[in-house]
Fold this protein.
Amino acid sequence: MDIQNGQADVPSGARERILQTAHDLFYRDGVRATGVDRVIAESGVAKVTFYRHFPSKNDLVRAYLAYRHARWMAWFIDALARHGGGPDAIVPAVEEWFRDARYRGCAFINSVGELGGVLPDVIEIARSHKQDMTAAVAAVLPRSRQRAKNAQAVALAIDGAIVRAQFDASPDAALSALERIIQSLLKV
Amino acid sequence: MDIQNGQADVPSGARERILQTAHDLFYRDGVRATGVDRVIAESGVAKVTFYRHFPSKNDLVRAYLAYRHARWMAWFIDALARHGGGPDAIVPAVEEWFRDARYRGCAFINSVGELGGVLPDVIEIARSHKQDMTAAVAAVLPRSRQRAKNAQAVALAIDGAIVRAQFDASPDAALSALERIIQSLLKV
DNA sequence: TTCAATATAGACAGATCTGTCTACATTACG
DNA sequence: CGTAATGTAGACAGATCTGTCTATATTGAA
């Protein structure tokens, strides 16, 4: 499960270090709860370096979400493939994520909830992320005339499971409800 | 649709005025994006009055969520009844909400995303809210041995629809995906 | 070696934040 | 009427925030 800390190897430069640190802190505590000084201190860069790479905090937020999207999508596609690449792969794939100790829901849902009222870019970025997620779901569903509609419904149910798993002490209820929805949609 | 502005009549006192103002601002812009001075100015109270009723901002946040819960649940139960009180009431009920111009998703999902990493009370409050919402959903489902499980799955799908409706320019896709899930779960 | 690009540490400025407090006014109840 | 409770306006303090800047060091390429 390597969404959280990116590559196993050492980040290659200041920009990458900033991005990774911001990613970890923003996801864990929230964007507004994390000041730029903290990102700077924990990534070991100077303030001038920070602002050279990210002219404002909002720029960093946008970059954070792009970074998160790239990593999360790579993980999701890989996890679906590892679990067999069919509809039955969906629940075990998200289960890996939900059981991660650092799990705190979806960075896009969280960011829209936190910032959507004041930084509308975030909504557009999240929408695009969800479209790509839905496309990845469609790719593991059986071909049929309903495939696109089923993918929309399954992706929506995954979002519901993400939220419920974030609230509950254990992800079990969310996982079994998601399983139930997928089974009934695909009539398996 | 009266979640947003509470009663039609004038709030009865300073505390109510503060709560209603905080509700509107927190929901629209986010909690951390809204300073206490703004709540104070817009509710027309003095600072001492504000802090007498809410000893800290975190107390206000907790009160905001309790206030939101009471009003949202009252609306939800009423909307389900107005649309016939059966499973077919679910989609038209949430549609009323999604099409409200002030719609910005679920206050509980947003608050957990924003504050869940730093104010854990919020998660507990949100969990309780979702339990009550699930119970209201169960009450409109047909009696059967699957009712509790179906209610969990439907409630989870509603959360997914809430998120998608928040991201998309129109709630149409979320509403039809939700309809599809409910129909397939209940085999209608 | 030279020079441009990139890095370091951290001081600084102004804005915004949460919470404390003074002085005075109004309301409600016995 | 007197008093307690509740209200008003807003100054104040200290912390935290985002972003600008100086002085110096390091790195990489020609």
About this structure: Confidence is low (pLDDT under 50) at residues 4-11 of chain A. Residues 35-37, 47-48, 51, 55-57 of chain A lie near DNA strand D (CB under 10 Å from a C1').
